[in-house]
Amino acid sequence: MIGKVYLLGAGPGDPGLMTLKGKGILECADVVVYDALVSPAILQMISPYAEKINAGKRRGRHSKPQAETTELLIAKAHEHAIVVRLKGGDPFVFGRGGEEMQDLIAAGVPVEVIPGITAGISAPAYAGIPVTHRGYSSSVTFVTGHESAGKYRPNVNWAAIAHGSETIVVYMGIHNLANIVSQLQAAGLSPETAIALIRWGTRPDQSELIGTLETIVAQVQETGFEAPAVAVIGKVVELNKVLGPHTGLMAAV
Asked: Between the CA of residue 165 and those of 18, 138, 201, 207, 233, what are the distances in Å?
């Protein structure tokens, strides 16, 4: 018999945002292979009898190569009934869950996806920034700011994104922020376009840095603002002044 692998989205960090289905799976898991961005409060939901394996990846500090992680999941599925691949946010939103699912299916391992709330929506929400709003934005684009070498195409088409969406949400873009901001302005976005950087979204230590495309790089340098963070670009950022003081951040534990 081969066990089943669950690709489980842990959400952005606030344990209250974990789905009931996800919590139930963690409580009966035999093995949990988890990522670096999974919050300690979520890790506490794991069964005390489960084997816990850190497969986290952070810039410059990769615990396990991706291929090794997939091989580990396959091996554990041949040993245990319930294997959980626990990822921050949602497995299919810049979480490489699609790649892992393909490999697991090719190896004959049963697999199920349990979605999670992605940081690109929840972190702005906790900062009082709705990614869509009838008076501000009718479209939103989610894009990675960190691309892998040898991928299917070499670069994000920032010019197309600049003209194609009223709100832009960038994941993993802090280390490439100067280039992203430069390309968006070269594509025609005004230097006065509002941008918000949101670090550790939905957690008690969430912090925001608000500026414009013209000022944000200098602000990051002056404040020492660091990853992990998402960036929100567009007119909706202006709502932070009005909605920010009334958001649900205080609910984070």
From this structure: 29, 8, 23, 25, 10
